[in-house]
Amino acid sequence: MVVTPFEIAPGIAIGGGSRPVYIAGPCVIESESATLEVARQLAAIAARRGVPLVFKASFDKANRSSLSSYRGPGVEAGLATLRRVKAETGLPVLTDVHEPGQVEPAAAVADVLQVPAFLCRQTDLLLACGRSGAAINVKKGQFMAPEDMANAVDKVRSTGNQRVTVTERGASFGYHNLVVDVRAFPMIRRFAPVVFDVTHSLQLPGGLGHSTGGAREFYPYLARAAAAAGVDGFFVEVHPSPRDALSDPSTQLAPEEFDQLIGQLEAVSAAAREASP
Q: Coil, strand, or helix at residue 110?
């Protein structure tokens, strides 16, 4: 199955047998200095590895487990930080939007707007994102069958915006667990390029009672399986010191772990492209 390629960001193609795109960065903007630090590290890794990379970070995490959990700096300060990341590293950027009112200011800075998994069916949000003209990455809800995401993609495309990707992050069967079904990748690729969310797929939602836990030891296995299935990109949350992260400390990778993972994924992805019919 071949998905027609398009530019997810200037000079970066996704789909249609293109080499995989890496979407990487911290879960949430914690401070401008910390965000710039990891952005510079990721830019250096991407340049040395010769891989296409889109920097990601959220200005707000509106669906944290607990009311007291850190959410981020907000729209104005967060977008100012992302604007500086672009200016200082040259990396394109991706960020989440949670409501239609955030779309216009976010699209003025971000190359890719992301619709969070819990909002993947919100019609007004999807339409606003489509009209922005930015590339759109819709995360598959943990409650959604893979083929049902075609409806979310169609909502965005109804605006005339054809630059839509879907990110798979596993399915929830309750009891604080997510399960990744490899069959989902070819199912989604029938209608859109598919990105695999390596780190969120490791989550144990609500597993710590007041916050989400995770089983990060499985990240290379899930990532390599997705590469063998021929996904079009990888979404990986990367933090300079994962254990100290204010969000998702159980699943984020350190820059050196991400660097090593790229080498594995490039090899497996290349083999998958050669083997594809």
A: coil
- From the list 148, 253, 240, the residue with the least C-alpha distance to 197 is 253
d(CA 219, CA 8): 25
Query: Tokens in use for 267?
Result: 């090899």
CB 220 within 8 A of CB 262: no
**Sign (positive or negative) of CA dihedral 155, 156, 159, 164:** negative
Distance CA 141, CA 172 (A): 9
**222 Cβ contact list (under 8 Å, min separation 6):** 180, 196, 198, 201, 202
pLDDT tens string 180-228: 999 999 999 999 999 999 999 897 765 454 545 678 899 999 999 999 9
d(CA 177, CA 163): 31
What predicted TM-score, i.e. pTM, was given to this entire model? 0.93
Q: How many residues does the chain have?
A: 277
pLDDT in tens, 25-41: 999 999 999 999 999 99
- When computed from its CA atoms, the radius of gyration of the chain, rounded to whole angstroms, is 17
